[in-house]
């Protein structure tokens, strides 16, 4: 029989083993288990409005914008066969229907590190068409990282511009409770980011977007900006030097390239443990700005006739056309439907439970069991001493 003053060895060995097991679980098991699932499948739905500002055929501005209902159906599914222990291959299908204006379907594929949730460089990753392989690394797209901090800012890849924007906490937003989850508000914005050529091709299948305009097609937009070409020529005609007339005539015979840009404001309610976007909404607009190759020559001509009011007005308006806000082509806004938010929340709640089990409950359970065994040892030790 052991001496009464000696603490039971098992009450030291077993708790030590349990603590080591908890540490080993955190170091080895958690990274192996807490990963993006290979059987994930969700179908968020969004509703909003689509507004068209130009005639798709002539590119002329409409007298009144056309606004129609917009429905966006998004299907996100992990390809389990293509995925591996470390990588998830995810297909995103986006169907958009804007009243009777258009109906289109877009497909993107992402390859993500299942542990960090960052996109990786992979030939299977593409935007819009399989031939348009894109490298989104190391940005995020479909999911933010596990154990996201409520003050964290992260880069998000946007296919339409082939570049990233920052998603950051919304200091003015409030958390919301959905399906037992706490969603933290995050926001993002872009201002006049150049549109990627691949997205222009995608848009061209829905709404014809000319890459350049004739001067005749540009005239209505100039008029909207305050440049009445007919009045300008009428006032300049009597005083215009022959070489300046040649410059203006040559300008009217050129085609004018267009630079397309996108502006964007987005919001997301994010569950921090999983980094999942549960409730999403956005507003986006697409515009175009003419790129005038003979800009310097035109400014020089107008500047030589300050006594002509129309020339002075045109010079000022030219700044607005070339350097001011782009010509709005269309814009749309949408919010996730309440039913869709609930559906996504159910899926995320299951993932959250798995993450909590691996990161919290198992190591906490092992630690608690170690405390219980140690406590039992103290009781046994106390009884031995009292009977000694």
TrEMBL record:
Keyword terms, alphabetized: Membrane, Transmembrane, Transmembrane helix
Segments crossing the lipid bilayer: 361-380
InterPro entries with a match to the protein in the record: PorA
Pfam families named in the record: PorA
Superkingdom as given in the UniProt entry: Bacteria
Protein name: DUF3068 domain-containing protein
Originating organism: Actinomarinicola tropica
